[in-house]
Amino acid sequence: MNKSIVLIICSLTFFTQNIFSQSLTAKDKRVIDELMGKMTLEEKIGQLNQLDFGMDVTGPAISKDVEQKIKEGKVGSLLNAYTPEVVRKLQDIAVKETRLHIPILFGNDVIHGHQTTFPVPLALSCTWNMPLIERCAQIAAKEASADGLKWTFSPMVDITRDPRWGRVVEGSGEDPYLGSCIAKAMVKGYQGKDLRSDSSIMACVKHFALYGAAEAGRDYNTVDMSRIRMYQYYFPPYKAGVDAGAGSVMTSFNEIDAMPASGNKWLMNDVLRKQWGFKGFIVTDYAAINEMTPHGLGDLKDNVVRAMNAGVDMDMVGEGYLSYLKKLLQGNKITLQQINVACRRILEAKAMLGLLDDPYKYCSEERAAKVNLAPAHRQTARDAAARSCVLLKNDNQLLPLSKGKTIALIGPLADDKKNLSGSWDDYGDWKNAVSVLEGIKNGQGNDVNILYAKGCNLVEDQHTIDVLNESGEGLKKDERSVETMLNEALEQANKADIIVAVLGEAKGMTGEATSRAEIGIPENQKDLLKALVKTGKPVVLVLMNGRPLTLQWENQHVPAILETWFGGLEAGNAIADVLFGKYNPSGKLTQCFPLSLGQIPVYYNYKKTGRPFDDKSLEKYKSRYFDIPNAPLYTFGYGLSYTTFQYSDVRLSTTMPKGNQTLQAAVTITNTGKYAGEETAQLYITDPVASVTRSVKELKGFQKVLLQPGESKEITFDITPEELKFYNEKLAYIWEPGEFIIHIGTNSNEVKSAKVKWMK
Ligand code: BGC
């Protein structure tokens, strides 16, 4: 481990190829023209309709009479239908029993792996490792395509600043630059070089737009935001996904400027199509056109007109298009041209995916059996899970654990497999996962003495259990009493040299519709942790969760904290690798952990105010809380290693760059500790004076470097005016000459800085 990476440089200009727009051949165009010439109005409308086959469901609407509707040519796409058998059976109906034999496009939420589950996306983002993230998407595509899927509703690229929102787990955190790099890597991984290849699937950038900014972190809630904030901080990852060639974009549930995204013409037409040149098709989120009615925008018919006028091509599950487009056309509320455009876009996607040539070639039991859970895939999952871990605290170098000790492994997640993969783990079997207890036994069985106790239930509070079980979590309380479980845990703890407590959220507490108002570890688990700390034995807290948590008490009282997120089916092996030093943790946070709930939203790239705060001063009229600091507990980019890294001052190739010149900013990083380790050096830039207010600093680059103990390496960032650009009051993307501060460091707070004056 720790050996494969020498240097990874992320650059947004790295992936220039737009796969999607290059894949339509002259033959495809001819076939589509011929089809369009033959299609009836009803058949065209059918292509715009996506139904839910019901193998997993995320919303209240479930499609009825799916097979009959396919026969009648009323289905262009299906979700929640997979496995070669199921897909072949449904595709057979479309291809053999409809007049024009147009195949169905099968899509689904392949979010972090298919049968081989990788760490949840928020965890993967903490690797800051683009080749690895791309590889995970590639493996997911390989497995999902063998199971008959040709389209994933991923990447989810919503910027998030509020950890109460449960879907932070599905994204890449708070930063637009890192989020853009990840969006590109994932699109590239899913779609590959050739969308027609057996193992590529089409990507869908979602949820356009601003879904991560739901007020108060409550899912599906209102969003209200200035345009300048949208363009500067929230739009870049969507645009990056589109630039990388994503074949589709999904609308979000929320409103923007008082209009839900699915009916928002400015967003879909002006921004996405005209400004960004998006050529693929737009699908709604689940029944999102229908949901415009409870939003207060009248009946479904009116909202179908809105969606059509916005340029939304496919209606997910709601059947509004199916029910009303013909009538609306007859009433001159929409035009045939609008239906033709949408239908053509969907046929183009099918052509580019190779479905018009061979509707079945992706369904292969043989290939599915070979690729799903392949040893190499599991090995990548293990590597990814280890690299996702973020070491939050490690007093007195308590970690890594040494051999020959007695370890009390305690907690409801210590020998758990069901929660390890987090949300969107529907395709695999949780029984294939490796728990932490198993991981330690696999790796260190002979070297350590392991004592185990569950210690408490994952959740004790009946209301939370009822809510989780309502959505099928199947949580059961242990038959033993709280006291019995605690006593057993304390008995084991008292016999041990060191306690490893594996605690966190149930996987059902994160993901869609899982907003939490309190974001600590559940109270009953905290009681267990307090009792373990009270024993006086050293405690390592291993966290599994899908969002930043409030950890003030834990940070004050527990000497070592390792954030492992939901690491996928190899999590147990990977966590054992990290705990015992086989892998030296290198993950860095991509979203701040608040000190207290009252700070939310808290993020590193906040705007300057007219009353800047100085934490050494008690001055009153400043932008501050008087009871707590402004700073989060753990900031963006933060993460420790078993070794230590020292940064030199920043060296600049010039302090007076001009025009389009490239400025080089270098630092030397030295491994000053005892272990080989990987560091992610981060480049931030401050624009102290501009024509609009700017953030205190913004991430503009990062590089990973592996260093042996005592080794030093120089790393250099090339900076051009591209990195200085921002959206001005006219929403033009420009840079303005003047002074800039270049920061390079180990996280967004601990940096070395140097100034330049950059003139035109
Ligand atoms: C979610 C989407 C998902 C869709 C289909 C919706 O409820 O918001 O992210 O892709 O369901 O499963």
UniProtKB/TrEMBL annotation:
Keyword Signal (UniProt): yes
The protein, known as: beta-glucosidase
Family, similarity comment: Belongs to the glycosyl hydrolase 3 family.
Domain Fibronectin type III-like: 679-748
Keywords assigned by UniProt, alphabetized: Glycosidase, Hydrolase, Signal
Organism: Danxiaibacter flavus
SUPFAM superfamilies: (Trans)glycosidases (SSF51445), Beta-D-glucan exohydrolase, C-terminal domain (SSF52279)
SMART domains named among the record's database cross-references: Fn3_like
Membrane-spanning intervals of the chain: none
Lineage of producing organism: Bacteria, Pseudomonadati, Bacteroidota, Chitinophagia, Chitinophagales
Keyword Signal appears in the UniProt entry: yes
GO molecular function: beta-glucosidase activity
Catalytic activity: Hydrolysis of terminal, non-reducing beta-D-glucosyl residues with release of beta-D-glucose
EC number: 3.2.1.21
Class of this enzyme: hydrolase
